[in-house]
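User: Hand in any protein.

Assistant:
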Amino acid sequence: MQKFCYSFPSVGSRFVQILPKGLSHLSSNSAAMSQERLKPEEPASPLKRLRIQAGLTQAELARQIPDKTGTKPISQRAVSAWERGEYQPELTILQMKALCRALAVTLDDLPDDCGPPKPSSLEENN
C-alpha cells in the first residue's frame, strides 16, 4: 500500500495522508506525524527529511527494513541513531532495497551521510 504525504504552506507544516477508502484505520501515525515536523532552526538529517517526506515515523520505517538475518525488522533505535549521526548504517543489499522502497527513492537519492549536518558545515553556509 502506498501512502501519499502533502504539505500545504497555507496550513503550516501539517501532513495530510491520503489512504484508499476503507483503510483509514491504518493511519495510526497521523498524530505522531503531526507532532514531528522539521523545525527551521533545527538542521535535520537528510534521512529524517526523506522519512518525513515519505510520511513515516521512525518505527514505521524500521518495520519495513529486515535485520541482517532477515528474520525480524531492525529497531526504531537504529533509525534514530542514524538520523542523529551516532553511526552510519551498514546495510546489506536486501536492506538497502527495503530502505529505498520504504522511502520511495532510488539508491542514488539516498544521502551519503545520514546524520545531521556537522557544525563546521553549518558555519560555512552562514
Observations:
- The helical segments are 30-35, 46-53, 58-63, 76-84, 93-103, 119-125.
- Strands lie at 4-7, 15-18.
- Residues 1-34 have pLDDT under 50 and may be disordered.
- The CA atoms of residues 66 and 94 lie 8 Å apart.
